[in-house]
Structure formats: structure tokens, C-alpha cells
Amino acid sequence: MLHNKAFVKKTKSGKITKNVREHYLRDDIYCGVPICRVCDASAARLSGSASSPILVLDTNVVLNQIDLLENSAIDDVVVLSIVLQEVRNRNLAVYNRIRALCSNSARKFFVFSNEHHKDTFVQDMAGESKNDRNDRAIRVAAQWYRSHLGGAAQVLLITNDRDNKRKATEEGIPAETIEAYVKSLDRQDLLDLLVRPASEDVEMEEVEDLRPSKRKVLYAEHKPLSEITSGLHRGIYHQGKLRVNRYNPFEAYVGSESIGDEIIIYGRGNMNRAFDGDIVAVELLPQDQWHEENSLSLADEEDEEEGVHLVPGSADDAPRTTNLVQGASGPPPSRPSGQVVGIIKRNWHSYCGSLEPMPMPAGAGGVAHALFVSKDKRIPKIRIQTRQLGNLLNKRIVVTVDSWDRLSRYPSGHYVRTIGEIGDRDTESEVVLIENDIDARPFSSQVLACLPPLPWTVSSEDLANPIRQDLRNLRVFSVDPPGCKDIDDALHCTPLSNGNFEVGVHIADVTNFVHPSTPLDDEAAQRGTSVYLVERRIDMLPKPLTEDICSLRADVERLAFSVVWEMTPEAEIISTRYTKSIIKSCAALSYIEAQARMDDSRLADPLTTDLRNMNTLAKIMRHRRIERGALTLASAEVKFQIDTETHDPLDIGMYQIREANQMVEEFMLAANVSVAEKILKHYPLCSLLRRHPTPTKEMLEPLLRTAASVGLELDISSSKALADSLDRAVGEDPYFNKLIRILATRCMTQAVYFCSGDLTLPEYQHYGLAAPLYTHFTSPIRRYADVIVHRLLAASLGIYKLPAIFQDRPQLTSIADNLNYRHRNAQMAGRASVELHTLIYFRKRPTDTEARIVKIRSNGFIVFVPKFGIEGPVYLTERSEKGGGEWSVDEQQQKIKKMDGSISYGVLQKVNIHMEVVEPQPNRPKLQLTLV
Amino acid sequence: MEYVSPEGLRIDGRRPMEMRKLQAEIGVVAKADGSAVFEMGNTKVIAAVYGPREVQNRSQQLSDQALVRCEYSMANFSTGDRMRKPKGDRRSTEISLVIRQTMEACILTQLMPRSQIDIYVQVLQADGGTRSACINAATLALADAGIPMRDFVTSCSAGYLNSTPLLDLNYVEDSAGGPDVTVGILPKLDKVTLLQMDAKLSLDIFENVMQLAAEGCKAIAEYIREVLSENTKQLEYRRGL
């Protein structure tokens, strides 16, 4: 084992320090080729047949061609550690993908730690740039492989760096560009996956020439990074994440900390090739230009328009259209607008969509250039090259962006894969899943191996276990939506001799089967939550667990984690007890059944009595909670009836909430709060809790404005005040109150998970529930957060040790972040799925229905259709005549009036509309709303 | 941050169970009764021992055993950026105390009543694990001074990063913020004289990490023994025996 020292100089925040680090060179790093006689072959990953060469990749190949590398046609690859290091510094997403490839046992990717191998380490040479040194290291490693393996296998260096290739050839190393290599494989489909660097793009420019206004610089140049850094320092530029308006792709926002407000960016020119999610540097425009937005966003030639969509559930996914009402006569805009001067970090990934319809090119089979339209409206069209145009035209495909230069209107990218036919329900569902980054793959065999053997029953060991209390004698029952298979909660309520009640909430004991740091646990942590689409459910845990072993079905013994309170008849909690238990549910009721039992005065069986007792208690608890200031928010959830054969939606309607729902909800809330208190007491720094931030004044601004226009005063000083004023908001219209509540819900952000050590106690507050502490404990089958909370609770009772992960706060924080991300995506996917099915439903059924106006625009208004829970624009003027024509908007009153004063529409007004699915372009059906 | 790559190599190329390169030299300060330089990788520590000698401050004199004093300091040039550190700051007072207590445990102090032994250790170059290196250097210097000891104390640290126990953390790994367990043992007696950790670690992991550190201590003891016997051979040779 050799020992060596490497000297590294490093600059840190302007200061220059010299760091000396040891660098050990080893002789026990193996080549990974099984036929090698010198090396230990036990860790060999490569196949090492003499026919196919071993590929050594250059950094630029990994960075640019990762989609190609993920194709199984590319194999027997040596990934050098220097390449990995460079890739990690340049693009973490690509690094994670190449790492995943290297650890995938189905692929033959081998990581060779060339930097620590005594024969392949290269010293820095004077005057040599970092890049040249790394290229040399790659060549040395390739050369070493050649001499090490002798003639036993071929070694091929794949590089797209011209200089590197030339030097390699000079040194006698066979080298190829990736294009040449793929061509030699003779696989047409692979060629589409190739990314073409801009410099080699000769054919592309010819196509450009055919179109007008080409060869013209369309976008301002991005400033070099050094200038951006100094500009940020001096406060000229502002850094932030660009968020494109979901409903108007020509409008984007940059939340900047340095300016304390959001900067609006109008038009593609000002956005200057930035994508949604990019970290950008923005320069403010002079104040007199802050106004040009409306003309710009309308004048753009592209005909993107608002579509009909579901009612947003919260402020996070609500459209941001605050400024659009201000017509030409509005007051001077208060919000600054700006332009992007540079992109600090790209957020490019792959996008789902389809190709813009175009005629087949004359020379069939050749390379065609097509424009790709993403399903996500925020993404601009993407140019791709393909050899299989005919195949792709009516398919949903996945495309990745590669580059966007100043000369082209659209970014260029390449085809990754095909999902399926456009319009096909399965394809579209798949698109929903991909867009929301949801893993719907079946569980791997390693994961399934963690399951207990089936059929599973409560064993005698479980019964004998002292930590587990036998509660089978209790009259436990569950109340769930009809047809629910993953029952994770059950209840009981026993009157005690002293007049009090013993009330228990029993939650499926998932952590008894999902142990920390097993493949099953890792998979569940990654998925984070089950996803409920209209026609299917994507489970977080494998089916045997969700539907059988953990599901608290009727008349079977199941393991549970119980919270048992003693409550006075006034629903005051006297004592709380937590225990693992064994229960036997006597009935699995649906909400409807439970409600019917409670309402049926003839019934007086013990179960019904229990239900009524609980309901009484729940009502008191609910009342007390509302007294404290909990908000009763409303959402416009809809329910589909699905045809069991064709899976087509048969009917839709609002989801009805009964007293029984509220009863169960109340006890679940109480259990969550009790558990939150318990775990926080034991683990003040590493508990997983859920908080709901208090909405700021700005967030409630749209609500206040709408309310003011109909003469309603809302007090938003506290959640209690808001709750009270929402209660008072009753109009002659019975639906009025609900509508106001829906609008209020939409102004709030979503509740989020967090690690208790990251925030201070006042920030733990759950605004919506008016609870100082809250967590999720009651649905471990479908939420990973609950699994974590179960482990924390078990540890606080001394049942199990706390898994090591809880010691590591950054890791816990990253888990919480992932859960929030997954949770949001699951909701988005659910909504997208409902939207998809709404479209399918109305395709055959044009409908007239009643709707309410929720927002006024310059050329129409947005309506909300309560019956179907959808929201969409109604245009008063033809799209062709811009700017409203004979209609004028009164912003104060939130009204739109015809110039002659004959008709006017105000916000929250009831209108009758006609709903119909139209297809303005082939394969792009959309729901259109028109006034009747 | 990835401190152990999936290939099982640490940032500097070691495997998790490997120590840095050890290097030691005896008799580097001619004026002192015993002295040594001890290197663990880039960490370099010098130790000098004076005594047993007359107690300087009479009031501190102990009638039944020797007084052991220890002073730890860091050279201004020991870290990359030259910084003036006040003498007697909290950290060095604490380390002085730790070293004194550890050495006291192995010196046969009752053989030298009413006398004083001074141990001076200075860090010449710091790259993680200075505490351990100081103890090892002090052991060598004490042995060089011919002070009677039960056994040598050797010390080594181990940490836990990326769910892997790591032996002998260097500065980069040390500043990762994970747990850092410093163990000092009497290898022949197999007794622990020093055990320090300033983070939380679950008990079973802690046991593994501590076991690893103890293994490291034994390896250092092996090396120190070699150095000493080599030194003894030299002395023999010089005396013409």
C-alpha cells in the first residue's frame, strides 16, 4: 500500500486557503473483469467476453448521454471515479442516475476507483488545467485496462471531446465518439436517444432557415457567472427560483429574498430561456416598464389558453392571476417586474407530452425535425430530431431538454421513450404518474421477501408478548368509506362504572411488519404515501400487508397500536394510555351504515349505543375545537362511479360528508394530538410533526377582495376570528357559505411535515386545526409519516429501540422533505386523474349546468361548477378580438359590464353554462364552457 | 456528503477499518529527559517530558505520590490559516486535563513521592485526531524518560459516518459533525483509561465503534513497541553492549 500526498488549493468565500489532504494509493483495487487472472473476481461486474469491448466513458458522455446509457443496449461499462466526481460537481441529478445504474445488478456497470489505484493515479502537472488533467487520468485508466487485460478483451474509450480523442489515438488507445459507437451497434431506436451537441448540428440549421425570422438573435446573452456573482453582491441582480404561472406560460415569478417581494417576469424574451424551477438571476426593469405585461402576454402569437381544471385545493396549486384584472386603466402596478440575466442552476428533466402534428417529410425514414408539446403548460415547446416520426406522431412520449441557444425560439432536446397512444386512458394515467414522479412499478422481489409468510394469523408468540395487551374482548369496530380494503383505524367506546367512557382508537400495527432499514422500509420511505387515482390505487406497501395482514377487517384478530382515553361525558380527557394490542373488530361499517344505525331510533343493540355515545362525545369535542378557532374549510371533492367493466366513469357528484365521517375524524384528530404530545415530550429534537403555517395577509388578499365586492367583511386577525366571520357569511343563496369557505381554503398553504428540532415551539402550530401540536399517526398503511410516528411512539414507550436514523437530524429533515414532496405529488396526481376522468365523462355527455363566478378577467370570467368540482374560463369575447372589446371591468366591484350597460356579471353570481368537450386540434380534447 | 463511497473507499482512499500512516521518533528534544514526535498521517505532535524532579511549587507537593502536570498547546502554524490562539483557552485546558488523567493512570506515581513530572505536548500540524496523537506521543516520551509505567497508554479515535464505523478520522471526516469516539487503553491489561464522545449514538452502534477504536489502539501499541525496541537496540549498540 503506497502513500502519497496531494496538495489542493481551495478558495472559500473569497478567502484563499491552502488545504493539504492525504491521498492514499492502493494496490487492492480490482478491475472488475471476471476473466482477469490477477484480480479478485468475486466483485466482478463486467461480462468480459472477447466479442464486445469494455467501454471507458468520458465525463461529457455521461453528462450528456445519460438517457442512452440507461438503455440496456449499452453494457460492459467502466465508470471511473474521476468521471463520477466530475459528474457530481456538474449535475447531481445525472450523478444519481449513473450511480443507480452502477448499483443495479441487472446492468454491467463497474466503478473503477482510478484515483486511488497506484498505477492509474496521475499527478497534477504544472500549467495543466483541471479538465486536461482529468482527461489525462481517463486516458491513463483506459491504457491501464488495455495493458492489464492484455489481449483478453478489447477496451474502447468513448469520448465526445475532440482533443481527448485525438490524444488517445496518438497514445494508441482505441477511441470513438458516442455517435460512431451507437452507429456501429446498428440500432435505429438508439439513435433517437442520442443528444446532439449544438456544435455538430448542421442539419438543424437548414431547417431553421426555412422559417421566417431566423438567423436572428432572439434572446439576450446570459451573463457570465462571475458577473452574476458580483451583481448579486452589489444588489443589482436578485437570485431566486423561477416559477412559471401554471395557467399562463408567459408569466413567471421569482421569489427573491433580497427584495422581499416576488418579481414578475413577463414574456419569453424577459424569461430568457429559463425553465420553471431554474434558479435564476434577475435584473429589475425600470419602473416605467413595469406595466407592459398585459399587451405582451396577449400579443404573443402562440395560442395557449386557459383550460378547464379542477378546483385547486390550496394556495400552493391555485393559479396566480392577481394582476390580470388590471386593465389598461388600472393603478400603477406595485409589484416589480424584471428580466432574467443568467441561469444559476438548471432544472431540466424529462417531460411528457406529444409531438405537434406535422406532415410526414418527403424522404421517409430519414431524420425528421419535430416540435414537442409538453403536457405541462409551463414548459415551452421542444425541438427534437427523430427517425421514427410516423411512429411517434400520435403517441405520448417522454422528451429531455439538452440545450437552448440564443438563435432558436425553442430549446432542443431528444426523445427518450414512448408511453402509448394519445387519448388512451391507460396512457394518460401513466402520464399523470410520470409527471408527478410517482413510482407505480410493482414491488421488487427483495421488498416482497420482507413480508411475513401467508396466510398470516396472530401467533401464540404475539399473544404471549408482554408488550402486547389483549383487547380482543372489547367491542371494536371500524367506520370507513364503502368498499375500503385498507382499513387502518378502528374504534371502541365502553361506558365505565363511574359514568365516564373508555374510548380507544386502534391503528394497524404496521411497524410490527415493516422493520427499519429493510428493503421494504426503504421502498415505503421512498414512495412516502399511497396514491389514489380514480380508477386505481398505487400502494405504499405491498398488497398482502395493506389489504390483509394490517387491514383491521371484521371478525379477524389483528395487531394494533392503541390509544385509549378515559373521558368524562363532557369529553374531557382524564387519562391517556398507549399500548400495542391485539384486537378483533366486530364490524367493518361504512359511513352510510354507521349513519343509518345512529339515525334509526328502533335500534338499541350495544354497537349502536357505542356509536351514539361516541357521536355525542365527538360533537362536544368538535364544538370545543371550533371554539378554539379551528377552521371548517371546504373542498369541492368529487366522487366518480366507475363502470366495473370498461372503467369508464358513469357518474360524478360531490362527495357527501356525514356526521359519521366527522365522528371518526374527530377521534383521529384527538389520537394524533395525543400522540404528538407524547412523542414530543420524549424526543423534543427528532419528532416528526405536522404544522400548518398561519397564512399571511397577502395570501388572504384575494379572498378579502372577493368578499368585499359582495359586501362581506372578513376578520382575518386570527384563525378564531376568521372562523367566526366565515360562520357569519350567510347569504340568501344556500351555497354561498360553502363557496366562501372553498375560496378561503384556496388561500391557505398546505400543512407540512417537519422535524421538531428544525423549528421552535411556536412554529409547530397547526393553523387550520387550531392545535399547538399535531402529527399523523392514524394511517400507517398509506402514509409513511405515520410509520415513523409509530416507531417514535413505540420507542417512547420503551417497546423498541429508536432506529439510528432518528439520531441524524439532516437525514430526518430530508425524509420530512421527501414526504412533503410525495404528499403534494400524490394530491396533484389525484387531481389530474379526476380531471382526466371528467374529460372522459363529458366527452359523451355535453351538459348544461349551474355555475358560480369566482373571478373576473378582462375578457370573461372564471366559473366554478359545484356539481362537478371543476373550474374553468368562460369567454365573453371571441379570442381573436383581444383586449375585451365592448366589455369593461370594474375592479373595485369585481364586475364585468357591457359598454352599453345592458348586462353585467359580478363575482359569486350564479350563471348557467354549457359544458362540452371540443377538439380544436386533433388529439387535444379539452372541456369548453360557454354561457347559455 | 459522501464520506464512504459505495466502492468502500473513504475520501482519502482508505477503507473504513484502516488507520493513517504512523510515524514516530524518539529523543527529538535533547534537553528534555524524554521526548518524541508522533505522526498519524498529517497530524504531527511533539511531546517532551521533564522529571521526575523536585516539586517547583511546594504547596502542591504530594507526600505519597508524584505530581503529574501536563500542558497542551497548538502551534500557531498547526492549522492551515495562521491564527493566534490564546494560551489556556477552554479547549486546551480540557485536553491538558484529559492527557494528564490518562497518563496518571499508567505512571506508577507511588514510586516517586514528593516529585513532579511535567509533560509538554504541542501540536505541530493538525489534521484530526490530535487528542489521540498527543497521548501516543506522551507515552513514547515518558518511556524515553524512563519513567516507570504499568503499561503504555495508546489512543485512537473512531467515528460513524454514512452508517459506517470509521477508524481514525482525519480533519475532513472529523468536521462532518458525526460522533467521534476517542478511546485510550492499556493494551496489555486490556483496560480502558479514556473514553470520550460528544454526540449521541445508539448503544449497539456505539459498542461497534468503540470496539473499532480499541482495535486501533492495539495496532498503535504494536507499533510503539516496535519503535521502542528499535530504540533500545540502538542504545545497546551505542553503549557497545
UniProtKB/TrEMBL annotation, chain A:
Compartment list: Nucleus
Keywords linked to the UniProt accession: Exonuclease, Exosome, Hydrolase, Magnesium, Nuclease, Nucleus, RNA-binding, rRNA processing
Region described as Disordered: spans on this chain: 295-339
Cofactor(s) required, per the database record: Mg(2+)
Pfam families for this protein: OB_Dis3, PIN_4, RNB, Rrp44_CSD1, Rrp44_S1
UniProt domain PIN: residue ranges: 53-166
Main location: nucleus
InterPro entries: Dis3_CSD2, NA-bd_OB-fold, PIN-like_dom_sf, PIN_dom, RNase_II/R, RNase_II/R_CS, RNR_Ribonuclease, Rrp44_CSD1
Example of a GO biological process term: rRNA catabolic process
Positions of the RNB domain: 468-799
Molecular function terms, GO-annotated: 3'-5'-RNA exonuclease activity; endonuclease activity; RNA binding
UniProt xrefs under SMART domains: PINc, RNB
Family from the record: Belongs to the RNR ribonuclease family.
Protein name from the UniProt record: Exosome complex exonuclease RRP44 homolog A
Species this protein is from: Corymbia citriodora subsp. variegata
